[in-house]
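User: Hey, my collaborator sent me this sequence without any context and asked if I could get a structure. I don't really work with proteins. Can you help?
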Amino acid sequence: MIKKTVKKNSTAGEAKKETKKVSAVKHASTKKESGVSKKRYIEAVGRRKTSIARVRLTPNESGIKINGKDYKDYLKMPKLQEIAIAPLTVLDLKDKHGISITLVGGGIASQAGAVRHGISRALIKLDAELKKRLKKYDFLTRDPRMVERKKYGLKKARRAPQWAKR
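Assistant: No problem. I've predicted the 3D structure and written it out in structure-token form, which is a compact way to encode the shape of the chain:
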């Protein structure tokens, strides 16, 4: 506990301000001393092309929600559903964690890849020993392939206008 003495020359208003500052410092130090803060969820980000997935993994819950919908309603194609939950399937953790995902940008295929990347990163934050198993399946590698930009003088990124001899 920190004690602050008030100078005899100071006014009552200044003394109140000084004691408030001391109490704020006291509370901040107790938070630091406690060490690890107790979080309710683990957050990670996954990316693919222009898609960004913010994944929140909540232990001891079940269900996977993407932008407020069930993942099966959001990703209609079974192949995309498999891609998105592949890390959970491989590690046999499908119903052991509740997952809430916010997706932005890209198409549905790249969004499924971003979800897979984000879930993998969140699982590693939960348990570092899972990294080897996930790395074996290439779930941790961020796919760097992006759409090439269009250049001036060309119709697309590389497609030149039709050449005419005369």
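In plain terms: The beta strands are 42-48, 51-59, 64-66, 69-70, 97-104. You can pass these tokens on to your collaborator as they are.
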